[in-house]
Amino acid sequence: MTAALRAQGLGKTYKRRTALEDCTLEIPRGSVSALVGPNGAGKSTLLNLAAGMLEPTSGTIEVCGGVPGSGPEQLAKVGFVAQDTPVYAGLSIEDHLRLGARLNRAWDDDLARRRVERLGLDPRQRAGRLSGGQRAQLALTLGLAKRPELLLLDEPVAALDPLARREFMRDLMETVAEHGLTVVLSSHLVADLERVCDHLVVLVGARVRIAGDVEDLLATHHRLTGPRRDVSTLPGDQHVVSAAHTDRQSTLIVRTESPVLDPAWSVGALGLEDLVLAYMSSPDDGSPGGAATGAARRTGLEVVR
C-alpha cells in the first residue's frame, strides 16, 4: 500500500534536547492512524515535521510524495490542526471561511458552510466567544474544507468534555468516510482512538516503540498468566513487552506470530489500551529481556533472571 507519510531515520534536536530520534515508519494512505505516547515523547514534533513547520535535524520525511512545506502544491496536500485548535479570537466564523477561501486554492466552500450550519454555529459569532468544543469544530472545518490528502490532528479533543469529544470524533469519521482522506490523530485518550483508528504508532522517549495495523498488532500480542516464570526461559519467538510477578504468579505481555502452546499459561487477548500502556510503561533498552526489565524499573516489579 502507498504511504501517505514515510520517515526514515528521522530526528529533531533542540540544542541539547532530543525531541525525536531515529524515527522510521510508514502511514498507509486511507488509514486513520493513532499517534500515542507520554508527554514529551515527540508526537507534536513529528506532526510539525510532517506539516512542514519544522525541518529535520537528521533523516528524511516524505509526505504525499513530496518534502513537507516545499512549496504551494505540497502545502495544499496537508491539513494541520495544531494542539491548541488555533482560531482567531477577533474574527467571526464567516471571516474564517472567507480567509480559508483566500488562502487555499482547493477550498470547498460548500463543505465548510454545510458543516457550520449542521453544527448550529452562527457565522456572525466571533471565534473568541465560542466554547472549546465549538472552536475545535471550527478548526476541524477549516482543515477539512482545505480538502487535503493528509489531515494531521494534534490533541484536538484534549480540552473537550466527553460529549463534545464524541461529537467531534463522529464528525471526523463521517468526513473521512465521505472523502477518503488519510488522518494522523495524536491523543492521550486511547478509548476514543480505539473506536476510530485502524493504524497505531506508539512513541516513547522520542523513539517509535511500535507501529502497524491495529488488528494485526492485537492479533499478535497476548497476556500470559501462570506460575512464576523466569522470562529468559520463554521460546525465542516470544518477545516480552512487559512482565509482572508475585511470589507465585507471572503475568506477561508478549508479542509472537506463533501460537502459545505451553499449557502452563492462561492466554488472554489485549485491548488497544492494554497494548499501548504495555509499551508506554516498558521502554526497551535493546537487551534480552530489556522490555521486562524496563517495566520492572518503572513499576517497582521484580524481574526474575
Automatic annotation (TrEMBL):
PROSITE patterns: ABC_TRANSPORTER_2. Keywords: ATP-binding, Nucleotide-binding, Transport. Residues 5-230 form the ABC transporter domain. GO terms for molecular function: ATP binding; ATP hydrolysis activity. Signal peptide: none annotated. The keyword Flavoprotein does not apply. This is ABC transporter ATP-binding protein. It comes from Bailinhaonella thermotolerans.
